[in-house]
Amino acid sequence: MRIYASLLLCCFVNLSPAQMSSGPKNGYLIVAGGGALGADIAARFMELAGGPDSSIVLIPTAGGKDTYGGNSPDNKFLKDAGFRHITVLHTNDRKVADSKKFVDPIRHARAVWISGGRQWHLADSYLNTRTQKELFSLLNRGGVIGGSSAGASIQASYMVRGSREGNQIMMAKGYETGFGFLKNIAVDQHLLTRKREKDMLEVVKAHPDLLGIGIDERTAIVVHGEDFQVIGPSKVAIYVSGAEMYFLSAGDRFDMKRRTKL
Fold first, then answer.
1. Cα dist from 193 to 28, 99, 152, whole Å
2. What 3-state DSSP class applies to 74?
3. Could you tell me the CA-to-CA distances from 78 to 57, 58, 106, 222 in Å, in that order?
4. Dihedral sign for Cα atoms in the order 117, 123, 124, 129
5. Which of 17, 167, 251, 258 could form a disulfide with 161 if both were Cys (CB 3.0 to 4.6 A apart)?
6. What is the pLDDT of residues 126-166, one digit of tens each?
7. How far is CA 260 from CA 61, 161, 215, 255, in A?
8. Residues near 57 by Cβ (< 8 Å), separated by ≥ 6?
9. Cα 120 from Cα 159, distance rounded (Å)
10. What do you get for the CA distance between the two ends of the chain, in Å?
11. CA of 15: how far to CAs of 12, 23, 62, 241, in Å?
12. Kind of pairing, strands 144-148 and 28-32?
């Protein structure tokens, strides 16, 4: 661990303030690796959202459908967690996503959950629209945004697996920009389940300023400010240019700014 720490600190010294990695200063993120999420992740989202009577927005757009009812798996996940007031928010039309009427539920929400699927659907619909701005506003007022699988990768500033052609392509021209709730970070998901442990290495090699985070299924990181904590039964991988990949487990904390385990 001392070897890892020295390598990571070396990388940290060479970063300018603009290149340092971080999460929201006021709000929280739950970034989950996909699969069947457990009660521990649901309970933490509930706690950060303010309880079962809080207003929750579910964004299922990554699934790629034209319309969504109330029977999506993630809607069930939220209902099973105990939430009583869930609004499903979806559009494939950027003009709609950029309208005041569409984003009104986000303005009155304490929490947003972004479902899995393909993250390019989320980028096409919401990137650089009023919807994205209101999501940042929710975080600024202390709210929480959670997401799993595609809903995890989209939260990063650099979006991996964004190609329309297939999710095997890590760096897809035109689809490399995420929502940016996580600054100077790339997030991969389904890490061990789909044997993706080495896939992030090419990303941090091509973009040495990025912090790469890989998250396995049923596992998540809870982000606030400059650090995060791991929850769930599996592993989270850390990738930094110039250092070897290594894993974190449940309960571990990580300093994203200094890029070292706490």
1. 26, 39, 16
2. helix
3. 10, 9, 16, 17
4. positive
5. 167
6. 999 999 999 999 999 999 999 999 999 999 999 999 999 99
7. 34, 26, 17, 5
8. 86, 87, 88, 89, 105, 106, 109, 111, 112, 113
9. 9
10. 11
11. 5, 17, 33, 11
12. parallel
What are residue 58's DSSP bridge partners? Answer: 88, 113
pLDDT of 51-105, one tens digit each? Answer: 999 999 999 999 999 999 877 889 999 999 999 999 999 999 999 999 999 999 9
Helix (H, G, I), strand (E, B) or coil at 80: helix
Tracing tokens 């950060």 back to the chain, one arrives at 48
pTM over 0.85: yes
The crossing angle, in degrees rounded to 10, of helices 130-140 and 100-107 is 20
Alpha-carbon distance values, 62 to 59, 89, 194, 200, 220 (Å): 8, 12, 19, 21, 19
Element (H, E) at 11: helix 2-13
Q: Phi/psi at 127 (nearest 5 deg)? A: -65, 130
> DSSP assignment, residue 210?
P
> What whole-number distance in Å separates Cα of residue 164 and Cα of residue 116?
15
Q: Does residue 14 register a pLDDT over 70?
A: no
| Residue of 251, 216, 212 whose CA lies nearest to 235 | 216
Q: Could you list the beta-strand ranges (E) of the chain.
A: 28-32, 55-59, 85-88, 111-114, 144-148, 156-158, 182-189, 211-215, 220-224, 227-231, 236-240, 246-248, 253-255, 260-261
Beta bridge partners, 228, equal 223, 254
Quote the CA–CA distance of 218 and 189 in Å, as a whole number: 10
Among 50, 217, 226, 259, CA closest to 138 = 50
